[in-house]
Amino acid sequence: MTLARRIIPCLDVDAGRVVKGIEFEGLRDMGDPAELAARYNREGADELVVLDISASHQGRSTFLDTICRVAEQLNIPLTAGGGIRKMEEGRAVLLAGADKVTVNTAAVQRPELISELSQQFGAQAVVLSLDVKRKGDSWEAYTRGGRDATGLDAAEWAAEAVSRGAGEILLTSIDRDGTCSGFDCELTAKIAATVSVPVIASGGANSFDDFFDVFTKGRADAALAASIFHMETQSISAMKKFLADRGVPVRLNR
Amino acid sequence: MKIAIVDYGAGNLPSVERALRKLGAETERAAEPKQVASAKVIVLPGVGHFAAFVAGLRERNLTESLRDAHDSGVPILGICLGLQAMFASSEEAPGESGLGFFPDEVRALPTNVKSPHIGWNQVRRVHESRLLRGIPEDAYFYFAHSYAAPASAAPTVAACDHGVSFAAVIEQKNLRAVQFHPEKSGETGALVLRNFVESVQ
């Protein structure tokens, strides 16, 4: 009996569409969130993450509708977030059909947000989204989609968030994000050893080997990726078989 | 047969509702004592904090009607926190009383493992289970909790290990309870719910 390592596809959503950021190009349309969600549910994803990356207010207003349409397609857990600043916004996301809510920028500005959400909905419903860049021998936490340095040490901030009631850490390496050079296993192992809650690794995934590495060397509890799944270059079921053959506990049956 | 889903003011009602309806079951939300009192089948879903759960039931005067329903043998399925609420108390909320269908206390998961216990885990069959009928021994179920009922504390038919052996599936007379979320456990979870629906028809 073993807790399975989770494979989590992520949908970055802008104004009701799944998008992918392309260097020098801006955003490329990757499809309808509900359609992609249904596909991943069918292919054996262990969970789904939907992030609102809308820059505009108008884009944001459609996000709750997107969560609702995505949740309709799933019989696996759904995590949603992006730009959540207040307890009531978190509640709305959960009521729309998400099981967990992610917080980042607003939690750095006002860490009590984590405590409030956790007390109301339980630690299992609160995910700290931690975007980090390497700084010498350690890592620094960033907010606003990787634009603003916080001066906070990533491991220290992760520990504080957990003590306030965050039940999981969604850890993104900004250095690796979009580079296809693999997860930052050193970073993931560092945070996983620091906190008592599960760590979801994100940023840089490109191959089955990257996932194997982050579950073994990186000691991640779950691993998240977006474009490699959207492009249908890698299927989730094939990846799980690859991992299972190499001794990583994954959920193969549906 | 219509299934009454207890609405205590929080929790994961829509997903439980959706999962039951996909099986063809008719559901209604029960937020008033008379709805619980007239129910033929009850589902008690729950997420969040034990104290908020029992307070939610108390404020809506649902505690006594649930105890009455249990006394008169109405089938009740508790899910996650709904399982924990069937116990007398929980370490999560000292001083608060649960429904007391089982006498023991729900305890925090040990500190030598990651908590919350979040993710897909397998269960160990201890006794013949109606809810797990037709489900492979190595199937995975989705868990998300920081507290659990010790496997020895209740009529446990399947246990799960995460630092400690805890009750994953409980079955006793009219009572059924699962610590995992069947509504989030893929096709396997749907089969658990189907088994429940079929067993009460």
Q: Which SSEs are present, and which pair or pack?
A:
The complex is a heterodimer of chains A (254) and B (201).
Chain A: E1 6-14, E2 17-22, E3 26-31, H1 33-43, E4 48-52, H2 57-61, H3 63-72, E5 78-81, H4 87-95, E6 100-103, H5 105-109, H6 112-121, E7 126-135, E8 138-143, E9 148-153, H7 154-163, E10 168-173, H8 185-194, E11 199-202, H9 208-216, E12 222-225, H10 227-230, H11 236-245
Helix pairs in contact in A: 1-3
Chain B: E1 2-6, H1 13-22, E2 26-30, H2 33-37, E3 41-44, H3 50-59, H4 62-71, E4 76-79, H5 81-84, E5 87-90, E6 102-108, E7 117-121, E8 124-125, E9 141-145, E10 147-148, E11 156-161, E12 165-172, E13 175-178, H6 186-199
Parallel strand pairs in B: 1-2, 1-3, 3-4, 4-13, 5-6
Antiparallel strand pairs in B: 6-10, 7-9, 8-11, 11-12, 12-13
Bin the strand percentage of chain B.
Answer: 25-35%
Low-confidence stretches of chain A: none
Main sheet overview of chain B: 8 strands, mixed
Number of domains of chain B: 1
- Average pLDDT confidence of chain B is 95
The total count of strands of chain A amounts to 12
Question: What is the H/E string of chain A?
Answer: EEEHEHHEHEHHEEEHEHEHEHH
**Oligomeric form:** heterodimer
What percentage of amino acids of chain A are in beta strands?
25-35%
> Which spans of chain B have pLDDT < 50 for at least 5 consecutive residues?
none
* Most strands sheet of chain A: 8 strands, parallel, barrel
Main interface by residue count = A-B, 32 and 43 residues
| CATH-defined architecture of chain B | 3-Layer(aba) Sandwich
Strand order in the sheet with the most strands of chain B = 2-1-3-4-13-12-11-8
Describe this structure in words.
- Chain A is α/β, with parallel strands linked by helices.
- Chain A has a single domain, classed as Alpha-Beta Barrel (TIM Barrel), CATH 3.20.20.
- Chain A has helices spanning 33-43, 57-61, 63-72, 87-95, 105-109, 112-121, 154-163, 185-194, 208-216, 227-230, 236-245; strands spanning 6-14, 17-22, 26-31, 48-52, 78-81, 100-103, 126-135, 138-143, 148-153, 168-173, 199-202, 222-225.
- In chain A, strands 1-4-5-6-7-10-11-12 form an 8-stranded parallel β-barrel, surrounded by 7 helices.
- In chain A, strand 7 (126-135) and strand 8 (138-143) form a beta hairpin.
- The longest helix of chain A has 11 residues, at 33-43.
- The model of chain A has no long low-confidence stretch (mean pLDDT 93).
- With 201 residues, chain B is an alpha/beta fold.
- In chain B, strands 2-1-3-4-13-12-11-8 form an 8-stranded mixed sheet. A 3-stranded mixed sheet of chain B has the order 5-6-10, with no helix packed on it.
- Chain B contains 6 helices and 13 strands.
- Chain B has one domain (2-199): Rossmann fold (3-Layer(aba) Sandwich), CATH 3.40.50.880.
- The mean pLDDT of chain B is 95.
- Chain B is globular.
- Chain B has helices at residues 13-22, 33-37, 50-59, 62-71, 81-84, 186-199, and strands spanning 2-6, 26-30, 41-44, 76-79, 87-90, 102-108, 117-121, 124-125, 141-145, 147-148, 156-161, 165-172, 175-178.
- Classes of the chains: A alpha/beta (254), B alpha/beta (201).
- The A-B interface holds A 1-4, 6, 41, 46, 71-72, 75-77, 95, 97, 99, 119-125, 167-168, 196-198, 221-222, 251, 253-254 and B 10, 12, 14-15, 18-19, 47-49, 52, 81, 111, 114-124, 136, 138-140, 142, 144-146, 160-162, 181, 183-190.
